[in-house]
Amino acid sequence: MVSAGRGVAPCTQGPGAAAGVNALADNAGSALQVTRLAVDQAGRAADFLRTRGGGVMDLLAHFWDRLAQTPPLLRDDVHLLLAGPGAAGAAGADSASVLGAMLYVPKGHRADVFITDASAGRAFTSYLADWVQGQPRVERSEPPPAGAPETTVPAALALNYVTGEAISVQQMLPGLLELVHRKNAAKQSVNVMMRLPPDRPVRRCAKVRAARDGDEAVLNKWRRLYRKERGILFEADVDAWIDTGNVFVYELEGQVAAVAKFDLMLRAIVEIGGVFTFPDFRRRGIGAELVSELVGRIRESGKTPSLQVDTENEPALAMYRKGGWVEIGRLARVWLSNAP
Questions:
Q1: Which pLDDT belongs to residue 81?
Q2: What does pTM read for this prediction?
């Protein structure tokens, strides 16, 4: 069922996604309603991410807050959805009754999702199934088999990339793959979201400084090696990085031994990212010292330090756990198919 409002087709709870996973509850018997919010109501959905996401969804909530800045001509392409029993998504409804939130952007071929109940995942999948049924059918790339009169195939959901709390994404993945006519995802990654408790002391390090003019070559080296080892390529404008003052180096005897940066600076959180110690300087604790200094700087600003680590990056996870960082949850990224 979909609430009245922005011309959304009815949505019933279908079999779409698989049963609940791990900690997800499953209230399949309760009647759910999916409500599509206007972009100027995005704060309600973002608040749900922050209050119920345990910190894992704070970064996505930051981007949802900015949906109101979407150009008017593109707003009809933004599907911002809430799911819950009865009129949970209606204006003025108690946010505690919301069971899930999803942002789907067809032109961007992407979606963000967080659900606290498996039935919300099924409701969102059914909403997407109903929506795609209204899209034009696609001409076949090859002639149909002999005797087959149909010359078109059902339209696939315009969705390539999904991100969100890991259990939420995995719970919805079977239904989403069905909607894009895929049996398996093209690529998946999961990051451990970590925070350092506020009572955990840190040691400051005078060897850490902000990157400055003259560091361009070493920053480009950092980009190349980080991509080679971690598969992530940072943007190329190192001059702009230097201007922001949010890229830092650990200097040892006149040589840059390690680099890190502030990935994202929110109103209450600063995420540390790109931590990299050059091969010749490893196994000396330099990375830990660099991170400790950055934590000190973040705390001085009155904000909370945060970071995320790929589950396959065991050395980094071991370093952070040894330093007192604790896991608050996991964020999944799934590429359903090759980028359009």
A1: 96
A2: 0.80
